[in-house]
Amino acid sequence: MSTLVIVGAQWGDEAKGKIVDVLGSQAKWVVRYSGGNNAGHTVIIGDKTYKFQLLPAGILHQNAISILAGGMAICPKGLIEELDRTLAQADGIGELMISPAAHVVFPYHRKLDELEEGARGDHSIGTTRRGIGPMYTDKVQRIGIRMGDFVQPDIFREKLHRVLDFKNRLMTLLGGEEISFDDLFDEYQAYATRLKPYVRDTESLLARAVKSGDRILFEGAQGTFLDLDHGTYPYVTSSHPTAGGATLGTGVGPRAIQNVLGVCKSYTTRVGEGPFPTELTNEIGDQIRRQGNEFGTVTGRPRRCGWLDLVALRHACQINSMSGLIITRLDVLSGIDELQVCTAYQNRDTMPYSREDWAEVVPSLESLSGWYEDIQGAKVWEDLPSAVQNYVRFIESFTETPAAILSIGPDRSQTIILRPDLIWGS
């Protein structure tokens, strides 16, 4: 059994895409298990930059089979555009499969996302307005349309008739306009015809792959503290980016998961609303944003930047049962004389539970030496300055989780493997 889950250990945007691309070359299967095109992964290979929102970042490896699993929210139009763009850009891609259990995102989901965010006023959540939340609402209400039904014209027509009538009434109540059934059906039936060849019984295929001992890489989107149950509620996503989502979203049982690696930046970022105890709203925060090019892959929004929150990171290690950490963006911190990390929340012995609890958090910060060297050319641990090594060791010690991989630049080659045994096992 060789199974590995890659999960975001913070609020998303931890550079998981690069890591999945690097490790995808070693896997037979790369499986995206949750979320939709409200998440983005960037992969840089030489002079080419690929931006993925739905396709697994492992799609660039022709030896790997990429799966969009049942836990996902799939916008057919977005997927086709992304697939065509990638095919035109890459020399070749791996085989793609879509679970029939994955749910479909429609224009009325996006419109409702906009209308509902607008209705919240000052209490908006800060969604990407891609319709992901309303789609997952349909899933829970058991009125969603799944890929297996979407690619069967008669079933799709009947279900869309029933759902759209209700959605049009809801949009009208919120001040929106109705959507024409005929126009919607004709457009999306064409998408369904294009995607039908990719829809396969992925659950059975993955079960056989586990039994055969194939290497399976489970790709998470977003991050631990955006998880619907374990994140900073209500400023969370509508699915489960945590490691447990890999089993919920794919049908692979929990005892089949071998290793879990959590990807964290060497600092902390967040997009949208919600608590952020270590946020820097000063020139250092601006420097980190500038050096790290911290703008959303999907939205283009500037990311909020701050010091590394080790209290939150240690909690993420616990709830994901992490085997190890993948620390990224270490190169971004070059040029900052003194670094700080959060090692406690004042007056709190436990993680905040509510929005009100988070609002009262005051971080206790500890200083560590920074570095000025350009570390992007380092090939092994010994090439790194002592200040970088000390920073990594401090993270390991505080979280009680070993560092398995370090990322010291955006390219594939700018990766240092410290613990190969924590990736696919010994």
Low-confidence stretches: none
Termini Cα gap: 11 Å
Number of domains: 3
The chain-level structural class is: alpha/beta
Main beta sheet strand tally, sense and closure: 9 strands, mixed
Anisotropy-based shape: globular
> What is the top-level CATH class of the largest domain?
Alpha Beta
How are the strands of the biggest sheet laid out side by side?
A: 7-5-2-9-1-10-14-17-18
Number of helices: 13
* Strand segment tally: 18
Explain the layout of strands and helices.
Blueprint: E1 2-8, H1 16-24, E2 29-32, E3 41-45, E4 48-52, E5 65-68, E6 73-74, H2 76-89, E7 95-98, E8 103-104, H3 107-120, H4 132-141, H5 147-150, H6 153-173, H7 181-195, H8 202-212, E9 215-219, H9 244-248, E10 259-265, E11 268-270, H10 283-291, E12 304-306, E13 308-309, H11 310-319, E14 324-328, E15 336-345, H12 355-359, E16 363-371, H13 386-399, E17 403-407, E18 415-417
Parallel strand pairs: 1-9, 1-10, 2-5, 2-9, 5-7, 6-8, 10-14, 13-15, 14-17
Antiparallel strand pairs: 3-4, 11-12, 15-16, 17-18
Helix pairs in contact: 3-4, 3-6, 6-7
Keywords, separated by commas or semicolons:
3 domains, Adenylosuccinate Synthetase, Chain A, domain 3, 13 helices, Adenylosuccinate Synthetase, Chain A, domain 1, 426 residues, three-stranded mixed beta sheet, nine-stranded mixed beta sheet
Question: What does this molecule look like?
Answer:
The longest helix is centred in the middle third of the chain and has 21 residues, at 153-173. This protein has 426 residues and is α/β, with parallel strands linked by helices. The protein folds into three domains: 2-100 and 198-256, Adenylosuccinate Synthetase, subunit A, domain 1 (Adenylosuccinate Synthetase, Chain A, domain 1), CATH 3.40.440.10; 103-195, Adenylosuccinate Synthetase, subunit A, domain 2, CATH 1.10.300.10; 263-422, Adenylosuccinate Synthetase, Chain A, domain 3 (Alpha-Beta Complex), CATH 3.90.170.10. The model has no long low-confidence stretch (mean pLDDT 93). The chain starts with a strand and ends in a 9-residue tail after the last strand. The chain has 13 helices and 18 strands. A hairpin with a 2-residue loop joins β3 (41-45) and β4 (48-52). The radius of gyration is 21 Å and the shape is globular.
